[in-house]
Amino acid sequence: MFYRRHVDKLLIPIILGLVFVLTSYRAKNRLRPEMPAAFVAPRDRSSASKSEKDIAGAYWKAACTNIQWKYVYGHPLPSDPPPEFQIDDRRLGALAADATTRLLYWRRLQQVWFRPETWTKEYEWDFGWVGDPISSGASWLKEESNRLFQ
Q1: What is the mean pLDDT of the chain?
Q2: pLDDT score for 19
Q3: Is the pLDDT of residue 108 over 80?
Q4: Separation CA 99–CA 69 (nearest Å)
Q5: From residue 18, how far is each of 47, 131, 147 by CA, in Å?
Q6: What is the pLDDT of residues 42-68, one digit of tens each?
């Protein structure tokens, strides 16, 4: 049976606070701001021209600002580039925004997407689970089971 003690008044808030902190402080994977060398060109990286490096840098910036929020670490990217993966920089010329160039850098992003050196792990507060605790709990269980059993 349950016995009421004066210690319960202290233990219950401490346990609830601990559960809240453990649930809210989570690791998040983010793309590194510096572009990986494999993203520039699969061939000789030292001979890549400045314009190739600038175009690759612009597409890497698009991946960091738009793509990493839509597709998380560990999940495959779709075969076709989404509309968010594009650049609009007039300095780079018309070739940079061309569909072929866009597809080329999308394929390169797919190649480096699963590499651990492409990502950095940061711990931050995340209170998103408060809005829908059941689906958040289910996704947390899925993530943890994938992490433990793969």
Answers
A1: 83
A2: 82
A3: yes
A4: 22
A5: 54, 19, 23
A6: 555 555 677 888 899 999 999 999 999
pLDDT digits 0-9 by tens, 7-17: 777 888 889 88
Measured at the alpha carbon of residue 29, what is the angle toward residues 54 and 136, in degrees to the nearest 5? 135
Whole-angstrom Cα distance, residue 92 to residue 1? 74
pTM of the model: 0.70
Q: Output the pLDDT for position 38.
A: 87
Phi and psi at 141, nearest 5°, equal -60, -40
- Residue 80: phi and psi, rounded to 5, are -100, 140
CA-CA-CA-CA dihedral for 105, 107, 108, 113, to nearest 10: 120
Secondary structure class of 109 (helix, strand, coil): helix
In whole angstroms, what is the distance from residue 60 CA to residue 132 CA? 33
Instruction: For 19-85, give the DSSP string.
Output: HHHHHHEEEEEEE-SSPPHHHH-SS-GGG--HHHHHHHHHHHHHIIIIIHHHS-TTSPPPSSPPTTS
Interhelix angle 99-112/50-62, nearest 10 degrees: 70
